Amino acid sequence: MVGLFSVDYPTLQDRQISKIEREFPSWLGVTKRTEKEGLCFFVRPEFGGGRIALRNLSDPMSYKSAEFCDIAIEELTENKRDVFEDLVLFRLRTPGVDRPCFLSGTNPTGKGLQWIKALWIDRKFPKELDHLKHEFHYVPALLDDNPYLGSVYRESLMGLPEKKRKALLEGDWKIPEGQYFTNFERDQRKVHPAVIAQIVKPWWNRWLSQDWGFKHHSPVHWHTVGNVLPQDAHLLGRDWNTPHRCVFTYREYVLSLSDTGRSEQQLGADIRRLSMGETMKAWILSSDAFGEKTSQNTAAQLLARGADSGKQFPAPRKANMQPGSRVVGWRFMYQLIQNDAWFFSEQCPEALDAIPALEYDSEDGGEDILKTDHLYDDVGDELRYGLQDMLNLAAKPADVALAEQIAEVERRDPIEAHFMRLRETERREKQKQPLQYWE
């Protein structure tokens, strides 16, 4: 039994079943549905009697008890990584077949682009796949490799926007369609650590930002900000004749607690050790670390204990993750780049990879960034609130923040928003506080 999968059944019908019915010769076999095996292409007994199971991926977990000697998925980038984990790694087995295979064809577009690029293009394997990395092979297939497609199709692809054209015509995996930070040029942002050491002054503010995660990665970055003097501008390849305020992201530490077996306390100790000799002004930590407790403590408390916070080292501070802060934060980052005011040490490869990989969330009108389950998403979030919270220091009045929160709720549930107003009015009347902005 071989499994042939598409993202959903209409796609399976259009892309696979219809092609099989037109192109497979009748003497080879027949497509039919049986009660026992569902919809399959049944190879005739004289040719081995195998089956190609025609399936969709609307619910990968529905194949828990299935077995496939081979699995093929078309347009793999239309899927999140859990399809690979829950279907391919879990269901690729058949008694008597020693080496079952997985294969896929796909274009460098779609929501799964980053995890696929990491494995097959960049060959960056997580710990659990390291023993299988020799089994991963990428075979590029360009338009010129297909003798049956004529010049008219090439001319059509040449009419696409640049990024989509590079992806579909040239097989370019580097620049995703819908890239948010179109102003990010790696060579213009990357700086040698020795150059940063020459530019940064002892009195510049330094801080760190962290996105906490257990199964997800927990990236940490160190930042500093100050005025680059005109006489130092040449070190960055610039010709500024006045001081230019710049941010330098100069160190990174990225790990997964579940993969490494390390605890929050050990991670906190690592952070303190890596910060030795530096005065850190703040430690901006994702707000989820302050919520659910691990034993008697939150993750934030355990991290602080490991870092020995309070003894010349700051305690973690909850990041601003209020509704609306994401869009504002992405624009803030974009503007830093646009103003030529944000640079990265070569020792921050994940940050340098993450920013150009972040894509618009087109379903939300392109103002936010697409949420994925890739490391780049964690790094992007952490950099966003790490910079926004420290550099965009004009805090909103509490009444304004509350008004925005109620407006956000009202879009989903006007009744709940009404009761939020009533509760706040009652609270303020008891405390004799004035009402502003939203009364």
Summarize the structure in words:
The protein is α/β, with parallel strands linked by helices and 439 residues long. It has 3 domains: 2-158, Rossmann fold; 186-391, Nucleotidyltransferase, domain 5 (2-Layer Sandwich); 398-431. The chain contains 15 helices and 15 strands. It has helices spanning 9-23, 81-91, 113-121, 151-158, 162-170, 186-189, 193-199, 257-260, 264-274, 299-307, 325-338, 349-357, 375-391, 398-412, 414-431; strands at 2-6, 29-34, 38-43, 51-56, 70-74, 101-105, 190-191, 205-210, 220-228, 244-253, 282-285, 293-294, 297-298, 316-318, 342-345. A 7-stranded mixed β-sheet has the order 7-15-10-9-8-11-14. Strands 2-3-4-1-5-6 form a 6-stranded mixed β-sheet, with helices on one face. Strands 12-13 form a two-stranded antiparallel ribbon. Strand 3 (38-43) and strand 4 (51-56) form a beta hairpin. Helix 11 crosses helix 13 (375-391) and helix 12 (349-357) packs across helix 13 (375-391). The termini are far apart. Mean pLDDT is 86; it is low at 435-439.
